[in-house]
Design a protein that fits this description.
By secondary structure, this protein is an alpha/beta fold. The protein has eleven helices and 16 strands. Bound molecules: iron/sulfur cluster (2 copies).
């Protein structure tokens, strides 16, 4: 029996456990393999929910993996979306990811086909799944916030991807990653792109199971054509509105309009502060490693011009360098057309820090939200 832990939400973990006990183990034995014994859960505790097996804390899980007390660690895809950081936590603690498996989506559990039942659990590195991906459809923005993490205010002219090239690249990327948890279409300000409907349709056609969001500051929402809202509804795409002070007076009207149109949206609290963590002096190797593994943006996997990176900075640092005549590293991008590129290589490379991380401090300086100076000054971006 393979000692197994299921990681994630307990309700989903119970469903996966039952699948293992009632369906998977029979097929595994029939195919000459070994059964799994689910001995623990690890992850979220829901009030009033009594797990059917003991629940491990994060440190207990790491300890058991270190001691080889566990042979299989399973994460249901539904529990590996957005800020899913477990692979980086294990990797940075020296724990091999070879025992980490994904359970496919719950909707795929209904099958009675033996092969599909056995394929329900797949190794982390081989599974063509990412919990999160984002892509820009405009690099510039109409708000130009100081310390915008994507440097949108430093983009001197309108910059949009070429749709045909994007479609070709994204279709190629789909060969490496064919399922995504959360997919965010953003920028800059994505509603400035007249082809936004085409990007939404493409994203949905390639990733039918993803939660897809268009992330906007909301400035253009009242002016968007009816077709935009129609495509959003047809493709089951959610608006994710980031709320900034210039929209304080008009946001109630915008929300009224969205409610009338029955648009599915989320709204952040009013952002009155921004964080700055960029520095101009490189950190040491140890500090850089710590900066990367502590950094929440390392999971903001960004797809840009046929390349993928852990975060957006490999693609947007060029704007900072051009504007201020600096030479911060623009590395960290993984070319999907590179010879021999495959899912395992891509996922392995996303686990490592890169040179640009040397310039991200582990400390963040909070500043009041404001637009950047015009022309911009270094102080708009660099931590004091
Ligand atoms: S609204 Fe968002 S993308 Fe635009 S400048 Fe501000 S932080 Fe950047
Ligand atoms: S460059 Fe590295 S440390 Fe900086 S935000 Fe990106 S992943 Fe994080």
């Amino acid at each position: 029996m393979l000692k197994t832990v299921i990681y994630g939400n307990i309700i989903i973990s119970e469903i996966v456990k039952e699948f293992i006990e009632k369906k998977y183990n029979k097929e595994a034995l029939a195919a000459g393999g070994e059964e799994m014994a689910v001995e623990y859960f690890a992850g979220d505790i829901l009030r009033g929910q009594e797990p059917s097996v003991p629940l491990l804390s994060g440190s207990e899980l790491l300890q058991k993996l270190h001691n080889n007390d566990i042979q299989i660690l399973i994460v249901p895809k539904e529990c590996a979306m957005g800020g899913f950081s477990l692979p980086w936590t294990l990797f940075s603690n020296g724990i091999s990811l070879e025992n980490l498996y994904f359970a496919d989506r719950l909707s795929k559990m209904e099958t009675t086909d033996s092969i599909e039942i056995l394929d329900y659990f797949t190794p982390f590195f081989e599974t063509k799944y990412l919990g999160y991906l984002e892509f820009h459809v405009a690099d510039h923005c109409n708000l130009n916030c100081k310390a915008c993490e994507h440097y949108s205010g430093l983009v001197k002219e309108e910059v949009y991807p070429d749709y045909d090239k994007f479609e070709k690249d994204f279709t190629k990327f789909h060969n490496l990653i064919d399922d995504i948890g959360v997919l965010r279409i953003l920028g800059g300000e994505p509603l400035m792109n007249k082809d936004i409907n085409k990007y939404m349709k493409l994203a949905r056609s390639l990733y039918p199971d993803a939660r897809i969001y268009v992330v906007t500051n909301g400035v253009l929402l009242k002016a968007m054509p009816e077709e935009f809202y129609k495509v959003m509804a047809e493709e089951n795409i959610v608006l994710s509105i980031s709320f900034y002070p210039p929209m304080k007076d008009t946001m109630p009207e915008v929300l009224k309009l969205l409610d009338e149109k029955k648009v599915n949206y989320t709204l952040t609290p009013l952002n009155t502060e921004f964080g700055k963590k960029q520095i101009l002096e490189p950190q040491s190797d140890d500090e850089t490693i710590m900066a990367f593994y502590k950094c929440s943006q390392k999971m903001c996997n960004n797809f840009y011009d046929g390349k993928v990176a852990a975060c957006f900075l490999p693609f947007t640092t060029k704007y900072f360098n051009e504007y201020f005549d600096k030479d911060l590293p623009e590395d960290g991008a993984i070319d999907i057309y590179e010879l021999g590129m495959n899912t395992r290589r891509l996922k392995e490379r996303l686990l490592y820090p890169f040179l640009r991380c040397r310039y991200c401090s582990t400390e963040t300086e909070m500043i009041p939200w404001d637009v950047m100076h015009n022309p911009s000054v270094l102080e708009d971006w660099i931590k004091a």
